[in-house]
Amino acid sequence: MILTSSSDEMDLASYQTIVMPGSAVIKRYRAGNMEIRIHRMPRLSSDSAVIAVPLAATAHIDGRYLFEAGMECDDLRAMAPLMGTSLKELQADYGVKGFYGPMHISLYGEGGKESLGEYLGEKDDDSVIEFLLSLVLDTFDEIAEPEEIQNPR
Predict the structure, then answer these.
(1) Which of 108, 54, 100 lies closest to 79 in space, CA to CA?
(2) Which of 57, 82, 105, 129 matches a 20 to 30 Å C-alpha distance to 42?
């Protein structure tokens, strides 16, 4: 998926798991004419989603929300009552002790969603953020290095 500044803006109604553009922004970067926002556990476009997004990067050009690269995990607490099973059972099924399944990489843009499978890299925030930034830059074929915007507001 290669996008440009003329790509279609994100349609928040197209998927329940799209990150709301201003939600839980922890960092902002500038690369070329693009602003990249990093989100931690943001609100999603639907309150009924059974997915959690520990970290995501959203790309904005000229104020238009064009793309998202996110880490998605099944939210076992939300899934358990819907499936009529206990949280402990789901944790055993997933092989986890926490409330979330493994992180999977998802890309949203041009009205579609692309899943890249399970994220197998380092799980610390800096490594995940660096990976998400690289996905955004690759998607827009942007060669400029992202520079953090220190005082975004």
Answers:
(1) 100
(2) 82
Whether 52 contacts 41, CB under 8 Å: yes
Q: SS3 helix, strand, coil % of the chain, rounded to 5?
A: 20, 35, 45
> Percent of the chain beyond pLDDT 90?
87
Nearest C-alpha neighbor of 37 from the set 51, 19, 49: 19
pLDDT value at position 151? 65
Distance, CA of 107 to chain centre: 7
DSSP string, 2-57: ---TTSPPP-TTS-TTPBPTTTTEEEEEEETTEEEEEEESPPBS-TT--EE-SEEE
pLDDT (tens digit per residue) in 27-80: 999 999 999 999 999 999 998 899 999 999 999 999 999 999 999 999 999 999
